[in-house]
Structures are given as structure tokens and as C-alpha cells.
Amino acid sequence: MKMQAWVAGAMALAMAGCGGSSKTAGGKKQYFVAFSQCNNAEPYRAAQNALMTKLFAASGDVKLVIDDAQQDNSKQIAQVETFIRQKPDLLIVAPNERAALTAVMGEAAGAGIPVICLERDILQPNYTTYVHSDNVEIGRMAGQFIADYLTKKYGTAKGNVVEMRGLLGVEGEISRESGAQEIFKKYPGIKILASPVADWLQSRAKDRMTEVLRVQPKIDVVYGHNDPMAIGAYLAAKELGREKQMIFVGVDGLGGPAGGIKKVMDGVLAATFVYPLCVEKTVEVGLKMLHDRAFKPEKDYRLDPVMVTPADAAAMYAKYTVAE
Amino acid sequence: MKAPIKKLIRRLIHPGRGTDLSSLWGLIGIVVLAIVLSPSASDGSRIFLQPGNLTDILRQVTVIGIIALAMTYVILTAGIDLSVGSILALATGVVAMVLTKPPAGLSYGYAIAWAILAALAASTAVGALNGIVIATLGVQPFIVTLASMIGVRGLAKWLTGNANIDIGFGQDVAAKFAAIFHQKTIVIGSYAVLAVIFWLVLSRTVFGRHVRAIGDNEKAGRYTGLPILSVKIWVYSLSGLLSGFAGVLYAAENHQGNPNSGIAYELDAIAAVVIGGTRLAGGKGTIAGTLIGTLIMGVLTNMLRLNNVDSNVEMMVKAVLIVLAVAAQGKRAAE
Fold it and tell me: What is this structure's pTM?
């Protein structure tokens, strides 16, 4: 029995330390915004959280709660269910996977909670609005950049490309690949030498790229489906003294000292493509929905990707870095 | 049917009479705490106590809870099954593959039954294989099931080509399957039925006595002629079967067959069993304890979430809880 009392005491302490107060100064209405994030462990997701926290804090009348589903569909469904019980004024969901979250987001919308679907699509439009970018377009932009670079290098679009692929079967990976392929198909001179799978991870990309470098004597371009994989490939080439023979192109374009834009400034990456965090638009639309009941958001907000090259990297760095 | 229920109630009221249910007090403590700390809804009622929230908890613990039922048997024989998460992934993949490409000419009902049977057959086969290798070759269960955890994960990924198999929301057989097996009553109901069956088998049958006896003292069991080989094969087969069934429910709930699902579920299931008072070294433990252990984890998670406690803090609190719960039981046993 004593031990059980201990358990209860320890938990009461933990709760007292962490459960935030929801009262606000001045008696102004405080809105409760719940955000179900699919996986905090990815740098892109962490950047989303940081920017959203900052922007909602600036509004002064929002209490934001972020739950991390740790890349687990069941966990995310459970978290959204719990949010539905709490009846937030606004629910934002960055779904881990399409099919899994569709039904529960429908339940939230059915319970009269305004729902913003962030960045990833679901199978049915069970949301008030959907804020996203376009991975196929980003693939096309990367493909075109590579084709233009090779044309400049050889006078005609030909050369050897290595693709570092993310986790297979994931929408981002499929779209970034197929977008680039659309462009490459137009230039028969461009050859894909190898497409190793590195699961989005820098360390794994370095290992896979080392193997490719041992086999392939002539590589012109490495296209990483995200920046960490492009950087991993760079590190592998550098170890073998071959990093000057090829260029490295990435996707994500996060700000901050660890992000891809900094790597463009440092000359590691020849280019990166900013896949927008979609957070600024989400907060803008979300606040309008909270403050103005009559406001009807559009069903769909699509944000364009942005190319970052050494010429404009410094300016982009300032723009996309979230100050703490 | 009535007598066992009466006996269970008696045991719940008088723990220590053959069954150690000290974990029940832990559950009661956490439920009280959850009620006290529960935020209020707009009408002043406690959100924690809303029927919707209480059934949310039951539905959310079902997948781990079902796996933990068979895991209790495995641990009672002084074994362990690390492959349950991978088997769950395999089952989600098989059921979704069959449903999205159902055999021609079958009506919806038969197609769904066929898909579920295929998933259960595959998972039971893996479990049986675990049991056969453990029982006949004498390799440690930890090693054998670690190997199948890796191998079966590979099999699930290979079968599905690494991709999720989505189950849509249309009128096809796959969507029908998800609509049926996604309902709270079906999910919670099947957990309840399985729990009763596993409780009765363990406490009322010769097989149940053998399961306990093997874990208590395998050598003695061997001398007294217990069917150790067949009991072990049965126990691991049941673990495979229930992991597969959990996978079927998972596929319906998540609307997909997912070869990456169920990662680290073996640890959640083992935690539920151990919090419920089952001795990791085997021989001692109950299904009622496992149910309580499962509910403790579920209520705790729900309580922390309703209060918007940071999910990283949630993990730290759970870690403390596991150690304290087991320490409390150790103390009790020593007293």
C-alpha cells in the first residue's frame, strides 16, 4: 500500500509541474488550439513546432498544446480522440499516414471542431481546410535544376546522376522521385547510375554513398530526396577526396544552423528546395477562424516550393530561420 | 459460468487468497487520481468520466491488451515472445492484401472471413514455429523470438513491397471490413471475450495448470511427465494467434496494412503483464493481473493527455510507474 501511495504522489507531482494553467490575464477570451504532430523526431517537424509555438504565442490569446505521435498511427488516433473530448477551439492535425487518420479526423469535424489538415493529405476531405505544398513540383524543380547544370557543364544535358532515396512507400519519397523522373525522361543523356535507399537518414546515406563511390568512377550529380541524405553523400565523397567532382542537391531547405540552407551557404550543397513548413499560412488562417466566426476558409491552400542557390542563400537563411 | 465470476469477485475483494492482485490497488489509485485531476467539460462534468472517454481508453488498450493475454501464458512458462509486434505487422499486411484483391466469386462475408483466416493462419504458423524451435532445439526463447522478430518484419515488408496497403472508404469489401471491425463494440467486445476465455483456460483447465507448473519448475515437470513439448508449442502458437488477431483489428482501425506497424509493441505488452504482477521468471501470475496492468497503462496515458502533459514527460512518468509497481509487488510477496 505504501508503494501505491508513492506512485500516486510521484504522479501528482509530475502533473503539478507540467499541467499548464489556462487562465489568462485581463479576462480576455483565451482560445485552446490543439496540434497533433505526427513525429517530432524529424527536423522538418521540429521546425514546424517551433514556428507554430512562436506565431501563436505572438497572437497573445491562444493556448497551444502539441502532442507528438512518434510516427505511430494508433498513437496519433488516440491523441486526436482525446483532443475531441477536450473540445478545442481549433484542431490542427499533421497526419502520420493518409488512410489511418481519415476516420478520426472525420469524427473531430463531426463533433463541430474546426480542423486544419497540415501538409499531408488524407483519403477523404474530413477537414475545414487543408494547407500544403507539392512534392511532385519540388521533384520537377530539382530535376530541372540538375538538367540545367549538366547542360551548362557539357553543352548538352547529359551526365551521371545518383539518387539517394528516402523511406520507400512514403508519399514524399514517391513524389520527389517521380517529379524528377518526369524531367529526366525528357533528356535521354541523363543516366541514373544508382538509387540507394537511405531512409531519410544522413548516417545511412553516407554508408550507401560510399558503396556507390567504390563502384562508380564518374558521378556528376547526387540528388538527395532530403538535405540530410545529400549531406551524408557529400561526407562520403569528401572522405574519398572526390567531393569536388560532383554537386549535391537536396530538398527541405530548413533554416537554422543545422538546416540545408546553411549547407548551401557553406558550399556543401549546390542547391536545396524549400518545402514550405506551411505553418505561417496555417496560423494566419487559424487565427482568422478563431476570431471571426463568419470567416469561411478556402478548402485548400497550396504553397509553392522555393529554390535556394548560393546566390540567394544568405537572404533565404534570414527568412527561414526561426529565432528562439 | 456463474461460479467463476463469483469467485473472481471474491478474489478481487480478498486479494492474496491464491491470487496476488496488489496491482488492483494501483489501478484504483490511478483512476481516483484521474477523476480528481480531470479537466471539466463546458457543462461542468468531468471529461475523464464521460462514457465516450472511458470507451476510448478501452478501445485504445485493446491491441496491446490482446497481445498481453497470450504474453501472460508465455511468461508464465518462463518464456518471452519478442516477435509479437512483427507478427502483428505481418497480419495487417496479409489481411489488407487479401481484402484489396479478394478471390473472385466470393460474397463480402466470405471474402472477409477468408482474409481474416489467412492472417490468423500466417500468424499462428509463425508462433507455432517459434514454439517448435524453442521446445525441440532447446534454444532460449529470447533468442528464438528475437530472430523471428527480425525475420518476420522482413517477411512483412517483402510481402507488401515496403508499401502500406490502404483500405479506402468506398463500398468495396476492404472498406466494409474496416467499417465492421473499427466499431468500438466489436473491438472492445472481442477483447472482453478473449480475456474471459484466457482467464478460464488458465484457472480452470489442466492445460492452465501445466502452463504454470512448467514455469515454476521445468525440471520437476519433466520428472512428473508433464507434456512440456506440446504445452510450449501451444503457448507460442496462441501468442502468434492473438498477435495476428490484434493485427486484424489494427488494420481495421488504421485503414491499412502496414509492414512498419507494431514496432516496440512487445515491450508494451510485457510491461502490462509485469505491472499486473506476473513474475518474469515464470510460474506466478494471472490474467486478471494482466488486465489490470493493461488498464493502468491506458488510464495513465489518458489522464496525462487530458491534462496536456508533455508526451516526453509521459514517457518519464511511465518509466517511474513500471519500476514502482513491480517494486511494490516484490515487497508484498516478501511480506
Answer: 0.80
